Amino acid sequence: MKRIIKTFFFLYFCLSAAYAQQQEKNKEEILIISSYSYESKYIYSNITKFVNEYTRLDGKYSPVVESINCLSLDERTNWMNRMKKILDKHPDAKFILLLGPEAWSCYFSLTEEKYKKIPLGCIMGQRYGATFTDNAIPSLQVADTQKQGIVDYKQVMEQFNVRFFEYYEYDTDSDYKLITRLFPSTKNIAIISDNTYLGLSEMRIVKHTLEKNYPHMNLIYINGSRMDLEEALHTTASLPENTAAILCIWRFDKKNVIYMKNAEYLFKEANNELPVFSLTGTGIGYWCIGGSIPKYNEEVGVTLAQHVYQHIDKEKKDFPVYLHRCYNEFRFDMDKLKKFNLSKEMLPDKSIYINDTTLNWKEVLHNYRWYLLLMSVVMISLIVGIIISIHYSWHIHQLKNKLMDDKKRLEDSEKELRSAKDKAEESNRLKSAFISNMSHEIRTPLNAIVGFSTILQEETKQNKNIKEYVNIISYNSDLLLKLINDILDLSRLESDKQNFNFSKTDLIPHCQNVMNSIQTSINKDTKLYFRHSTLTANAETDLTKFNQILINLIGNAAKFTREGFIELSVKPDDEAQEWVFSVTDTGCGIPSDKQKAVFERFTKLNEYVQGTGLGLAICQITVRKLGGRIWIDPEYTQGTRFMFTIPYKHIRDVEYTPDC
Question: Where are the transmembrane segments (predicted)?
Fold first, then answer.
């Protein structure tokens, strides 16, 4: 019942996809052409895994499933017509997947160039297939002298754009050697195959190998294309002594009667003493002893989907062709080995066994050694844990009182922390009140003093003594006002109350303006340079804060440079998407152990030089608010070189974390 429901939903998906393709004729798609019915277990599994993986990769093309529904050999004349109808129905296929050798041979028979250019994926088939003397399938047609021949699909596909080819080869030679080693008296080998293209191809492969390599062995053919099931069972029952059999496949007889899995049971009842070896894996578990069979790739649908996605969705035309052979493995039925008195020692190494109920302690210890080791470690750990718990249990009572004391201390500490928190909040409130008073109660009258000092300077030009006093008042008032402004700026920056107005602008002209404004205030023996590697330096930033950074850094350089030069340079860093600025001087320099300290508040390396010790701290916070970085170049030793960056584009919500 589950399988019927599963098949229904699968067919619904396929038909829905086909209907969508009819509604959108120009829509490109991935066309999946199966040789057999969708109900086949392996067909369904591979298509489902392909569709699921391709969907997981978010592929943009729609997979559409069609079938040429190949049954017996008698109706092979219809296969080509079905293939052409499918291709005419889907003219916009971006990639075609061919499942099974019947689909391969029909497509490889096409002569139009457009079909040779479409990328193909071929799976679920053997490398060698049977040929015919008629022209029903042109790629399989041969002359009369080759009517018993086989075709190599690896050679046929060279004329087409095959991008994915996974195949398997039947190892008849290994099966023959296995038969003669286990049953050395074998004189006849019966080859059992049905009336399908797979059965004919497998029979041809076995026949070709045995006649070429072991011509002395007598071959008996139980051929479904020439016998019905009753005749085949009679032939099997009357096989001569010293005969072994190789089972290919049996689904159709010459009357086109279909048999799924019950045919092998009927063969078993017809001759239960016949040692039978499987070429394809069919019959192992209830009739066949075993054999060398292909290791069928159950994940080929996943691998194929990944390859198709890279080729058509990612458009990697140079993506390498996937060419893979499924290698063989030996598989045996333990019940049949016991029936024929065969032991594992007589069989190849690394063989796989089914229906194996014997308990091999060596294998158990080898396969489960890590689990046994883990269990031993767990048991030892439990025993040690019990001993330790008993040893320390008497401490629990003593620790209880200590824990109560610790709890009391923690409560007292919590009270102290709350009190300290309240005091810190009060201190912060007082600091805010002080800064507010500084802004309104100190800076306002100080601005008046500065203003009137400027007026007095104009009025006392003739009196040198009074002018000198007035100049002192004005100079120190300016210093005090700058200190207050710096403190207020630093407070606003740290409390996120400073507004930043970001806009797109060219920084080169503004750099030039700052250089021109500072030119008059530097020492006459100091040269001022501005170098830029680009004509423009477009960035999204706050121009006022940017100018403040330049004025502070170049002003600092001017204070400590008596002769030599001061250079401002700017260059782009496209990888980091930012502009890199540097202010270089030939002054006294900053020792390497002090290069981080200069960015701390109220830090002055030279107490005899005017300044508040806040300029670099403000620069550091401002640069970070603008989304950049600031540092001192440790490799420059001819003076000092400050470097900072401004991003090309402002990144919103940049958080500032002060250095502690």
Answer: 370-394
